[in-house]
Design goal:
Elements: E1 10-13, H1 23-32, E2 43-47, E3 53-59, E4 64-70, E5 85-88, H2 90-97
Parallel strand pairs: 1-2
Antiparallel strand pairs: 1-5, 2-3, 3-4
Length: 115
């Protein structure tokens, strides 16, 4: 898991991204398309057309990192907007990376009584 410091914002780049792109190209996308600073410490998440692969771009103050995750089954839940970026919490990102619907997570079981 990515060690996210408090105060760091997580951004989902809406739409599809060419997953052949590397960290320099994705940083340029953050700068030019999303109009944000890729070196400010925020996380930027990109998803490919098929929906089973995401790449996360993060500058930790020392250098740029690129993380990738591919789901064996299913697809990552993604916003329907086609341009721009949407901010989510670190907890929502954790749900998303596990393949859980981060927009409305549901508890799978809740106790009915204490005894």
């Amino acid at each position: 898991m990515i060690p996210i410091p408090s105060g760091v914002r997580v951004w989902i780049a809406t739409g599809h991204t060419d997953m052949r792109r590397g960290m320099r190209s994705l940083a340029l996308t953050v700068q030019e398309s999303l109009k944000r600073d890729p070196h400010a410490g925020d996380l930027y998440i990109f998803r490919g057309r098929r929906g089973d692969l995401v790449k996360i771009l993060w500058h930790d103050g020392l250098g740029l990192s690129l993380y990738a995750k591919r789901l064996d089954r299913g697809k990552f839940i993604w916003p329907s907007a086609s341009a721009g970026a949407i901010s989510i919490s670190a907890a929502q990102m954790a749900y998303m990376l596990e393949g859980i619907d981060w927009r409305n997570p549901q508890l799978s079981w809740r106790p009915q009584s204490a005894g």
